[in-house]
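If your schedule permits, I should be very grateful for your opinion on a structural question. I have a record of one protein: its chain in single-letter code and its fold written as discrete structure tokens. Kindly check, if you would, that the fold set down in the tokens agrees with what the sequence suggests. I remain grateful for any guidance, and I place the record below:

***
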Amino acid sequence: MGSGKAEEAASLRRRAAAVRLRDMEIVHAAGLGHLGGEFSAIDILVTLYFGVLRIDPQRPDDPERDRFILSKGHAAAALYTTLAEAGFFAQAELDTFMGPLSRLNGHPDRRKVPGVETNTGPLGHGFPVAVGAALAGRLDGSDRRTYVLTGDGELQEGSMWEAAMAAGHHGLDRLVLIVDRNGLQQGDRTESTNSLEPLADKFRAFGWSVQEVDGHDHAALLRVLRATPFEAGRPSCLIAHTHKGYGVSFMRDQVGWHHRVPTEEEYQRARGELEAQLA
């Protein structure tokens, strides 16, 4: 890896640690949130917003902007902290998360929050909307790209496979699906609940071009996300292998952290681990 690329990846790692820390702060203060799945997705979000997406926080409604849709809408705090870091709204507003009359609700609302492309929350909704957005871009004759991040447990929804089939049928090669493959969902492992494997082969059978990546390796994420479409005439699926609760030792790969809020002792311990990653 060249020195410039190494420096860019290192900068993204530090930024991701800062986003995790801010995310944990607002979840701890609110007493509500989904830290486990947020922490598994933050490296992906930071790489997209600071290394891939063609967006302008000063023009969030630019018709030619790239679209990003968080299909796993319960990870809203991770999206909000990333959007604030990118300049879509003031960092101070994050302190209102889940508060009375706050724009920053437990699920993102496009009518209220700049940078949010569609309301998500009920699982299985964001991916179909992303397929529609990609098809609209084609009809507009635009080269804008649509990225969508889904949880792996979310792939147990039938609407996800209807969307995958439609995208493959239409050859939407400006569409990029990223699967946050942390292997855990609320209550258990995905493979114990409803097996998804062989996941890559399933998407290929639906007409997608598929690659897999370490979802916490910023250099690898940059390389593969900047190389889309993977194949002309096919939508791109990136299976990002991640860890729930990544960045904090006692949260990592623990199903109980799906929607747990840290105690004060846990908060201080996690804070120390995340602050060490800022150096």
Summary: The mean pLDDT is 96. The chain has one domain: 3-276.
